[in-house]
Write a sequence for this structure.
């Protein structure tokens, strides 16, 4: 929670003003019973007797002195009440203002932190828990900040002040107040000890519900295809039931706490009236004094009820604050260098030097001794069986992960000596799964920079073979739903490719980005790339031999090691792994060299 308190620093002047207003409100509320006691005892009871005596002796107008005293005291009480109202409204507004801004700042910092996470950091936190921490956990902290500014300051002031005022009176009823306070404190302590462990469980179960919902919604097509709706409903029902049971347990505790404190308050009032009546009848106390004690007792009881409410909210807020702190204090696996080194050579030259890599927490290397150079104006293709490490190789170039050993150089400079922004500014990355954002086709293609000229956008779409755009009613202004669900997989891939092309980087990385395209579109796209992107370095990961057979350099991976490197013709002669892959996809004529890639492309055009 201390981490959260640091977010109050920018608003410390508002916090101080809120404290002053709450202090003024508490002091004013403590003054009212004392004035009321004087009005009853001096202005009404004794004032009436004294006024009658003065009137009889002096012949003054009956009741004039008494009325003057009542008007004066009543005016003071009204002024105090007005001050209480002003302080209460202002304090509530300011506490809400501060808590809302703290919540805003927390959400902003959490999101900013998450955007800097590497894949290793994301492996530690699931998407569902990050969503919960950015929303529900922040909301819990925000509410607790408002409660603390309002109640944590006001409740002790009112409670302690009320006890002091009762002890100062001569009514002899202070023991009743002390017993009542002890009873409420005991109830709150017991319930607090029972409820506190449940709040951490509650937040974890909320993560679980979010996880089940997220998985079910994203995989709904698969669920329907396999007829597993009932199974998924059962998973959600269990997660929902577990969360509900915890909330019901907490709710039952709340259901016990408030009636229990109300009963204690009512018994306190009855006891004060009972013993106070005896004190009045024996002339040990006056009526107004007893009435003041009752009001102080209500203020004390109310302050402890507020403390009990805080005792229920605070544990949940502490759990939420700890979860937020975990994210904010998570060590970023990939950081920028203190001083960036300039690129000396070509910005398109990518060189792997004896690269080894294993995933965090793993014992075995995924990649071993990977060395090759991808040069500008040439296409470097990477192929291999499933799990051979193809995607891992290209994920190391933009530093989604850092190498375990070895170096990756761009233009002769180690990529770890470049800022992530500048490094990724050199790269046009197209993932295997075409990811689109809600908006329009234009906003997705211009994602790298909204100042990209329209003609460059249209050129990128043409190279990407995204002709379907012109068939849409609004062309590039066509709406894209969240996740691109209103376009096909092939269309998503082509827009993703156009997005990378519009950026005009020096290095293009295609992670099996043509897998959703038919052979004809694939061939036309690759030919357009070769014609239009002549000076850039192109690195392609692919499963199809036909996609990469024209590449100037093909890297064959097998179990994380380079099994072969060369052109298509060379690898057919020298690499058994490549020959096995090619044999599974190409005909005998194609393997025997009786196949012309150029003629095939012309036939598909």
């Amino acid at each position: 929670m201390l981490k959260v308190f640091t977010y109050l620093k920018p608003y410390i002047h508002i916090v101080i003003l809120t404290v002053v207003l709450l202090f003024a409100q508490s002091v004013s509320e403590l003054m009212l019973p004392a004035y009321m006691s004087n009005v009853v005892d001096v202005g009404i009871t004794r004032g009436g007797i004294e006024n009658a005596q003065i009137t009889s002796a002096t012949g003054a107008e009956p009741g004039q002195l008494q009325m003057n005293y009542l008007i004066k005291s009543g005016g003071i009480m009204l002024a105090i009440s007005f001050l209480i109202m002003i302080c209460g409204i202002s304090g509530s507004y300011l506490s809400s203002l501060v808590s809302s801004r703290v919540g805003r700042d927390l959400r902003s910092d959490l999101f900013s932190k998450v955007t800097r996470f590497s894949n290793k950091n994301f492996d530690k936190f699931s998407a569902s828990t990050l969503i919960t921490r950015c929303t529900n956990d922040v909301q819990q902290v925000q509410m607790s900040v408002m409660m603390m500014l309002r109640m944590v300051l006001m409740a002790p002031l009112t409670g302690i002040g009320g006890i002091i005022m009762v002890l100062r009176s001569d009514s002899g009823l202070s023991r009743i107040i002390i017993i009542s306070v002890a009873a409420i404190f005991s109830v709150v302590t017991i319930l607090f000890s029972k409820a506190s462990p449940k709040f951490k469980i509650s937040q974890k179960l909320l993560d679980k519900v979010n996880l089940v919902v997220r998985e079910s919604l994203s995989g709904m097509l698969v669920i329907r295809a396999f007829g597993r709706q009932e199974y998924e409903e059962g998973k959600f029902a269990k997660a929902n039931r577990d969360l509900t049971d915890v909330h019901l347990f907490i709710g039952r505790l709340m259901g016990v706490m408030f009636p229990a404190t109300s009963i204690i308050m009512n018994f306190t009032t009855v006891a004060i009236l009972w013993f106070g009546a005896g004190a009045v009848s024996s002339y040990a106390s006056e009526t107004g004094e007893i009435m003041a004690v009752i009001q102080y007792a209500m203020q004390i009881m109310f302050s402890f009820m507020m403390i009990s409410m805080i005792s229920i909210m605070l544990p949940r807020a502490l759990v939420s604050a700890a979860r937020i702190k975990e994210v904010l204090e998570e060590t970023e696996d990939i950081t920028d260098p203190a001083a960036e080194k300039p690129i000396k050579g070509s910005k398109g030259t990518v060189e792997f030097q004896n690269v080894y890599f294993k995933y965090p927490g793993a014992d075995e290397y995924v990649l071993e001794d990977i060395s090759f150079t991808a040069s500008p104006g040439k296409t470097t293709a990477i192929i291999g069986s499933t799990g051979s490490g193809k995607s891992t190789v290209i994920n190391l170039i933009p530093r989604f992960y850092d190498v375990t050993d070895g170096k990756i150089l761009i233009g002769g400079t180690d990529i770890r000596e470049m800022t992530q922004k500048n490094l990724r500014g050199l790269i046009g990355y197209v993932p295997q799964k075409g990811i689109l954002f809600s908006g329009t086709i234009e906003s997705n293609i211009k994602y790298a920079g909204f100042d990209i000229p329209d003609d460059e956008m249209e050129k990128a779409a043409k190279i990407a073979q995204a002709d379907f755009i012109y068939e849409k009613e609004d062309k590039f202004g066509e709406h894209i739903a969240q996740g691109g669900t209103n376009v096909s997989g092939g269309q998503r891939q082509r827009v993703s490719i156009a997005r990378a092309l519009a950026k005009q980087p020096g290095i293009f990385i295609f992670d099996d980005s043509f897998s959703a395209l038919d052979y004809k579109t694939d061939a036309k796209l690759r030919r357009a790339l070769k014609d239009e992107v002549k000076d850039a370095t192109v690195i392609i990961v692919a499963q199809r031999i036909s996609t990469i057979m024209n590449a100037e350099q093909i890297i064959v991976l097998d179990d994380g090691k380079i099994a072969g490197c060369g052109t298509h013709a060379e690898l057919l002669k020298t690499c058994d792994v490549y020959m096995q892959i090619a044999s599974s996809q190409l005909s005998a004529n194609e393997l025997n060299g009786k196949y012309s890639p150029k003629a095939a492309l012309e036939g598909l055009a």
Q: What stands out?
A: The chain is about 65% helix and 10% strand. The longest strand covers residues 350-357. The mean pLDDT is 80. Residues 27 and 158 are 8 Å apart (CA to CA).
